[in-house]
Amino acid sequence: MEKEVSQGTGKKGASSSNSNFLVGKLPCLQPTSPFYEYTKLSLISCVSLGSHFTRSSLPIVSLLLIERFHFISAGQMGTLIGASFLPSIFLPLYIGFLVDTMGSIRFFTVALMLCTIFGELLFIYAIVARNYPMAVLSQFIFGCGACGVSTI
CB 123: neighbour CB atoms within 10 A? Predict the structure, then answer.
């Protein structure tokens, strides 16, 4: 019976080492290493700082956007700015509840960081394509991600 257990763990270890081959070879990529922790903290801080910068700079740049791109009015620009702040009203409660229930902070952090980055890239595309509904949707997606990252 001991042979079966050792063989079972040997197979499991072999498959996990194949999927994460760099983690075993580079000690800096171990989840307990200080480099790994500082890298994770730096990424979260950059996304939080970037989302704060984006949220606070959009009202400042609004007059430039209205002048340069003649496809939006001042009222539409207010809706565009408000779309990124709307998730901050209701989303922190739900994200906090889901993180407490599921207990997977790592998954939520990565998913919300990707949501923030995707929202910003979609906003850039929407402005270049002069697509106002897509710009509002992208700001809402960005607001969901940015609010979630700052909540966690």
Answer: 23
From first to last of the 152 residues of the chain, give the pLDDT tens digit: 444 444 444 444 444 444 455 545 555 556 666 777 777 777 767 766 666 666 677 777 777 777 776 767 888 888 888 888 888 888 888 888 888 888 777 777 788 888 888 988 898 898 888 888 998 999 999 888 888 777 77
Q: Provide the terminal-to-terminal Cα distance of the chain, rounded to the nearest Å.
A: 45
- Helix, strand, or coil (residue 73): coil
Q: Which of 70, 126, 34 is nearest to 142 (CA)?
A: 126
DSSP string, 76-143: HHHHHHHHHHTHHHHHHHHHHHHHHHH--HHHHHHHHHHHHHHHHHHHHHHHHHT-HHHHHHHHHHHH
Long-range Cβ contacts of 91-97 (<8 Å, 24+ apart) = 91/144, 91/147, 91/148, 91/151, 92/147, 92/148, 92/151, 95/147, 95/148, 95/151, 95/152, 96/151
pTM for this prediction = 0.64
List the one residue out of 119, 139, 118, 145 whose CA is nearest residue 72: 139
